[in-house]
Structure formats: structure tokens, C-alpha cells
Write a structure and sequence with these properties.
The protein is mainly alpha-helical. Helix content is 48%, strand content 8%. It has two domains: 35 residues; 124 residues, no CATH class. The chain has six helices and five strands; from the N terminus they run ααββαβααββα. It has a three-stranded antiparallel beta sheet. The protein has a two-stranded antiparallel sheet with strand order 1-2. Helix 4 packs antiparallel against helix 5. The relative contact order is 0.12.
Length: 185
């Protein structure tokens, strides 16, 4: 019995050390060397050096002076990150989308972009399509007292083209640039 038990325990300890200690430390070390910004959470810093957020996680912005992200099923809390799990046929989802659409609707601008009405799979997607950002442009420019052309230029500068998929705008980075624009005036 001990002739079978000792090798099994030795192998279990060895594999635990390799997969539980050596491998995670090696991957962490390689990530810190090759991709230090991403490995540390893609943090965004303000003027005074304080962390304002992460480029990977959406934040809630309210008020007319900010571009708003897509809704979050988990109230932008990373612990509760998840989709709402409401099926397209669920009346609660239809009611929420309809209420959001009437709240966000701007006369003369057509229908509210779907990205401003629906949550992402994680509930924390920081990106919006440029069309959803431009839908909010007139409101933000008017609230900040700057020309729509100036805000449009800022939006254009923040359009990212991912390796796969359509162009997107990171709402947090755009709002940070918007704050700096007003601070510079």
C-alpha cells in the first residue's frame, strides 16, 4: 500500500508546486515584463497622479456634461459583473429599454442607438460605438458651453479601431479628455 501511496503523494505535491506556484509566478513575471500596463489593470491616472479608473471597466457618468456609457446590469460594480440574463422576450427587459429610450430620446436625432439601451455581456464594457457617442454630442457640448465642432474633434481623436470588430470609443478616456478640455479654457 505504501509503495502506491508514496509516489502518488509525491506526484501530487510536485504537480501542486508546479501548477500552483511555479507556473503562476512565471506567467505573472512574463506579463509584468511584456505587458506591464495591462498586467496592472490598465489604470488611468488624473493630473495629480490619482487613479481615476481602468480603461477596461466602465464607470457611471451622470449629468449632461458627460458622455454616458451603456447601462450596466450590475450598477458598474465589478463584483457583480454580469449580464442581466433577461431574454429578449422578457417584458421586464422591454419595459426597461422603452423607459431608457424615452429618457434618452433627443428630438430630431432619430432613434436612440441600441448601445445606449442595452447592457454588455459583462455589464462593464467601457466602449461605445462612435454613433452612440455622437448621439450624445449636442447635449454634452451645450452643457459645457463649447462648440459641437470642438467636441466632435475630441470624439474623432478617441475612436479606436480594434484588431477585430467595429470602431469603438472608450467613454472614460473621452470624458477624461473632455475634463481636460474644459480645464484648459
Amino acid at each position: 500500500m505504501t509503495s502506491l501511496l508514496r509516489p502518488a503523494l509525491s506526484l501530487m505535491l510536485l504537480m501542486t508546486a508546479i501548477t500552483g506556484v511555479v507556473y503562476p509566478l512565471a506567467v505573472t513575471g512574463i506579463a509584468q515584463l511584456a505587458f506591464p500596463e495591462q498586467a496592472n489593470g490598465s489604470l488611468i491616472y488624473g493630473r495629480e497622479g490619482q487613479v481615476q479608473g481602468s480603461a477596461l471597466i466602465a464607470q457611471d457618468f451622470s449629468g449632461d456634461t458627460w458622455f454616458h456609457p451603456r447601462p450596466s446590469a450590475g450598477a458598474f460594480a465589478t463584483v457583480a459583473s454580469a449580464a442581466s440574463n433577461l431574454a429578449p422576450s422578457n417584458p421586464a427587459l422591454a419595459k426597461r429599454v422603452k423607459a431608457s429610450a424615452s429618457e434618452l430620446a433627443v428630438a430630431g436625432q432619430g432613434p436612440v442607438p441600441l448601445a445606449l439601451l442595452t447592457t454588455s455581456g459583462s455589464g462593464l464594457d467601457p466602449h461605445l460605438p462612435p454613433e452612440a457617442i455622437r448621439y450624445q454630442l449636442a447635449r454634452v457640448a451645450a452643457a459645457r458651453g463649447v462648440s459641437e465642432k470642438t467636441v466632435e474633434q475630441l470624439v474623432t481623436q478617441h475612436i479606436e479601431q480594434p484588431l477585430v470588430g467595429p470602431p469603438v470609443v472608450n467613454v472614460l478616456l473621452l470624458n477624461q479628455a473632455l475634463a481636460q478640455l474644459n480645464a484648459g479654457q
